[in-house]
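Justification of computing resources. Each target in the renewal requires a structure prediction run like the one illustrated here; the chain below, 231 residues long, is used simply to show the kind of job we budget for.
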Amino acid sequence: MDLKELDYVDPSCHWYYQHKAKAILTAVRRHAVGINSIVDVGAGSGFFCQEALRLYPETTAFCVDPNYSAEQLGFRNGMQFVLAPPESAAGLYLMIDVLEHVADDRALVREYVRVAQDGAIFAVSVPAFMSLWSPHDVFLEHYRRYTLRELVSTLESSGLEVLEARYLFGLIYLPAWILRRIRRDGRPRSDLRPSRSLTNAVLTRILALELHLPRNTVMGTSAFVIARNRK
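Resulting structure tokens:
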């Protein structure tokens, strides 16, 4: 979770983060077996790493983010918060909404592929479609948004074998597109805000349907890939 959004939403109960975590970790469970170490790249608050620890509670976990302050570093909640990646190889790498923040996304992926365990699993999500570009992206300092094909190409050219690819939040793509077109000339700000309990419950139920529908490769607000290190 981006540190900039901590002041706006609580990921432990917000529909957006709860659905994303469930979708991603459901996919991780299908492919990641015998995990002994997790590295969350650009981890921010460490929310997704902490959720992954529910699947692999005996696992060593590192949250890596060069933007951590001195006060944010150290061990807490079963995770080690660090500025740079550990030297030891891991079996699961989380790159949740991080590639869009770096100028050279392939270089970042290759940096971690080079040191990953043979067969390590990479769970990667990014914001989807430049048509959804808005002041939200400016606020979060994004370089780009991706199509699913672009994300797959980025990962494959970086040495990974793609196992699963899909869009997330497809059921709310159209209203999101409309809202962002309306707000496209506004000041930079996050689109995420605390939701009323009824709104949160309704969106949670709607998005839960996605987990039971055929894999969506058409549209969504996020693109998501599970890949494996094939070195």
